[in-house]
Amino acid sequence: MISQAVPQASIYLPHLAELIRIEPIAEREKVFEFRLKDGKELGHKPGQFVELSIFGIGEAPISLSSSPTKKGSFELAVRNVGNVTNALHNLDIGATVGIRGPFGNGFPVDNLKGKDIVIVAGGIGLFPLRSLINYILDKRSEFGRLIILSGSRTPQERMFVNELEKWHKREDVELLETVDEGDEEWTGHVGVVTTLSSEVHIDPEKIFAVVVGPPVMYKFVVAECHKKGIPDERIIMSLERRMKCGIGKCGHCQINGVYVCQEGPVFTYAEVKKLREAI
Amino acid sequence: MKAKLAFFDFTGCEGCQLEVLNFETELVELLNHVDIVNFREAKTESEDNYEIAFVEGSITRESEIPKLKKIRQQAKIVVALGACACLGGVNCLKNFRPMKENLRIVYGDAAKYYDTIPARPISSIVPVDYYVHGCPIDKKEFLKVTKALLLGKRPEIPNYPVCVECKLAGNVCTFDKGETCLGPVTRAGCNAICISNGRHCWGCRGPVDDPNTNSEKEILQKHGLTVEDILNQFRIFNGYLEVSK
Amino acid sequence: MENKIIEKQNMAPFVDNLINAEAEVIGPKRKDGKYAFDKLIETGELCLDYDTTLLPPKMYLFPPKETLIKFELGKEPEVEPVVEAKPLILFGVHPYDIKAIELLDVAFSTTNPDINYLSKREKAVIIGVDCLNPNPNAFCPSLGTATAETGFDLMLTDIGDSYVVAIGSSKGEQLLTKYAETREASQVELAQRNSERQKALARYKVTLNISPEELPQLLDKSWDSPWWKEKSEKCLSCGSCIVVCPTCFCFDVQDDVTLNLKEGERYRQWDGCMLVDFAAVAGGGNFRGDKESRFRHRMYRKGKYIWERYGKLGCVGCGRCASACLAEIASPAETFNRLKEESK
Ligand SMILES: Cc1cc2nc3c(=O)[nH]c(=O)nc-3n(C[C@H](O)[C@H](O)[C@H](O)COP(=O)(O)OP(=O)(O)OC[C@H]3O[C@@H](n4cnc5c(N)ncnc54)[C@H](O)[C@@H]3O)c2cc1C
Ligand code: SF4
Ligand code: SF4
Ligand code: SF4
Ligand code: SF4
Ligand code: SF4
Ligand code: FES
């Protein structure tokens, strides 16, 4: 009859976590650092997400933005767009939130080891990618070249400016930045993120592209990757969908027959290509 | 600090405010969190300081317009309360008759003293933040919206048709009983109360964001309604939407 | 499988005994010319010869609205899980609904077992009854769901003066021993059961012109068919088809607080892919923003995705969606037959 015994614990019960640090990063974006109240590690992989609860308001899926190599706490970078995210933005240090997860598959870090990696970030796509970047930097010798192409709409909307500066300075990181629209003070590159690609020279035999950004971005970036000879299996992307449960039950996150919260949010383009609803 | 609430009413049956008054026990609990600084009287002076204004009734006279604008200026959040305020409501039926005639019907010879204009929802005059739909409003929904606003949250008002709640309530569809219904194009949130009580839905909560009116008309026709019948059905509550097109 | 006989005059005492002694008994009752599952107060209300019910019995295992957690607000919030389950007898469940519950069992127990569903399921006894008066939109025989061999504790078949009772579990057997007057079924009576089932097959009005195993392949080829747009034009996005469906299990989750704003609960309620905002995200995006894509998605769920994911059919052919759809577009049988036509 029932293939499994009745479980002991509810998959809908969040763990409690304390907000220990808040840092504004742009007009509508802040980083929030949390510590689980039971003292445990969250134990996530880069590219995974949690369901964040503000009790009385609701839950929202948010990517881990800190690297798992950072112990004792974890960070979420959040744009204020609606009920839960707004309530989070209004919290003070010391507040308690609910956390379920980590959920999802995460970036295939083991496959990336020993390879060159080009990271393409559009807007707040940098939130989950920052977890991967810092992971790579903490285990730098295990990976090949690290190229970061980061695009923002305007100079004001650049995320993690301090960290971008730090990465700029590192010898072992090749960071190229662009904005869609510049202003008087901006002396850098102007244009959408794909316009950076002419400045990058890669060895298509040993490179992985990891792409996260707004839905419209993917098609263009994939075309650019193809031009550079990167095969579909080595183009990796993280997709966003409406989510409620985060654990493969509520059905909201489906792309065709795939549940993004389960099989995703990270897919290779080879997989995405087969999903007609994906991008 | 307690949030300050105010209630105002323009032209309507006041059924919605009666409905609000109807749940004293809940209001008493809520009063721990709010001060009701004004009930009914729309003062033009700005001494009132309130954050959330619930506005009932539609706008049917020139003189109401500055009052409404004043309310909008003062309040952080304006909530339209009930079908009249949200849609123009039943008051819009008069839009289909010449204004002069309306005046005569309502006021007889005194008509010349009144400045009646086509009935319109308050959103046609000022921006409205949230809507509590219905004629009368549903008490549970009013409380839900109020609680959400007190928590600083955008209230989740359904954007699906009454049919969802009607089916959940386990009702037999009125079309299966040889009658007709506006449920398929009307915004849910009332728990399909009319159908559960043996009547049909006449659309008092107004349409969903993107109603499939063509399909609904076809269905009504298939079930024996003429175009004129259909227009009349739609007009009861949604007259303003139609004439404003 | 062991089979017994309950004479018709002994059925009422059996049901009465269950109501009085065992647990809440839920069964099909008349409602405004249709049928609905509801709590039985007395045997007389039970209609075992119904065609189908308005809502499927899954509502007792996966309620339309169900609390998942409770919490206290404030600086140090406290949270606790809420799992409600009580002993329940679902009496008179048709085979297609049993098959649908078997799908829910898989969906709610794989990967992240759902304690809210599984606790209710564990405490539920299912007493089936063969469907001998199928509703005009049903197409169960085409999907192999007209009869069920598993998924029940007892299964009744009306053979005239008596019911044949197939025993599906020891729980079922115990209930029978304890509360019913039964005797062994004879070969003749078992043959009668077969012939009643055969006769019922002839009463179905809708047939699928393709075997269910071929559906995924058919759908693979049909993504760009003009059918989706053409047919969905009339869709009211009213969700009737997903609310009445025994195999749909999608839900929304929301928080609610008490009037004193000090405590609250998080609940889930039925939701579904035919509703406009099902795939909408903050900021105005909607991944299935048009009727066509929603209509197509539901059909793919029914014929392909669920099958591939859970190894069970996503549609059991009960016909409730077709009966409920005012636009007359919701029947998977119509769509699958049409696509089959197109693919020739
Ligand atoms: C895997 C994943 C990772 C994400 N990571 C981040 C991140 O690191 N930082 C960040 O700022 N945002 C992230 N988002 C987007 C974020 O989930 C939404 O902005 C958020 O859910 C909006 O919730 P709200 O309550 O504030 O908005 P409302 O408009 O009030 O949304 C109500 C509910 O709808 C659902 N919902 C609405 N929009 C989305 C959406 N875009 N994605 C999923 N569910 C949605 C949620 O359940 C939400 O609680 C991520 C989304 C996904 C799917
Ligand atoms: S009675 Fe009206 S609201 Fe209910 S299902 Fe039928 S059409 Fe929809
Ligand atoms: S059923 Fe229709 S008419 Fe009745 S309250 Fe609901 S929306 Fe209004
Ligand atoms: S298919 Fe029919 S029942 Fe389903 S949402 Fe569309 S109109 Fe409603
Ligand atoms: S899709 Fe329709 S026919 Fe199939 S199980 Fe659901 S309601 Fe029944
Ligand atoms: S058909 Fe739609 S509502 Fe039903 S289970 Fe599948 S995705 Fe969910
Ligand atoms: S978010 Fe609920 S199934 Fe993926």
Brief characterization of the structure:
The complex is a heterotrimer of chains A (279), B (245) and C (344). Chain A has 279 residues and is an alpha/beta fold. Chain A has helices at 83-89, 109-112, 126-138, 161-169, 217-227, 260-263, 269-273, and strands at residues 15-26, 29-36, 49-54, 58-63, 74-79, 96-103, 116-122, 146-152, 174-179, 189-190, 207-212, 235-238, 254-255, 258-259, 266-268.
How would the blueprint of this fold be written?
The complex is a heterotrimer of chains A (279), B (245) and C (344).
Chain A: E1 15-26, E2 29-36, E3 49-54, E4 58-63, E5 74-79, H1 83-89, E6 96-103, H2 109-112, E7 116-122, H3 126-138, E8 146-152, H4 161-169, E9 174-179, E10 189-190, E11 207-212, H5 217-227, E12 235-238, E13 254-255, E14 258-259, H6 260-263, E15 266-268, H7 269-273
Parallel strand pairs in A: 7-8, 7-11, 8-9, 9-10, 11-12
Antiparallel strand pairs in A: 1-2, 1-6, 2-5, 3-4, 3-6, 12-15, 13-14
Chain B: E1 3-9, H1 15-21, H2 24-30, E2 34-40, E3 52-56, E4 59-61, H3 64-74, E5 77-81, H4 82-87, H5 99-107, E6 116-120, E7 130-132, H6 139-150, H7 162-168, H8 193-196, H9 213-222, H10 227-243
Parallel strand pairs in B: 1-2, 1-3, 3-5, 5-7
Antiparallel strand pairs in B: 4-6
Chain C: E1 3-7, H1 11-22, E2 24-31, E3 34-39, E4 65-72, E5 78-81, E6 88-93, H2 95-109, H3 115-122, E7 124-129, H4 140-143, E8 154-158, E9 162-167, H5 170-179, E10 183-184, H6 187-201, H7 215-221, H8 227-232, H9 240-243, E11 251-257, E12 263-270, H10 291-310, H11 320-324, H12 332-343
Helix pairs in contact in C: 7-10, 7-12
The structure holds flavin-adenine dinucleotide, iron/sulfur cluster (5 copies) and FE2/S2 (inorganic) cluster (FES).
The site of one iron/sulfur cluster has 13 residues of chain C, from helix 11.
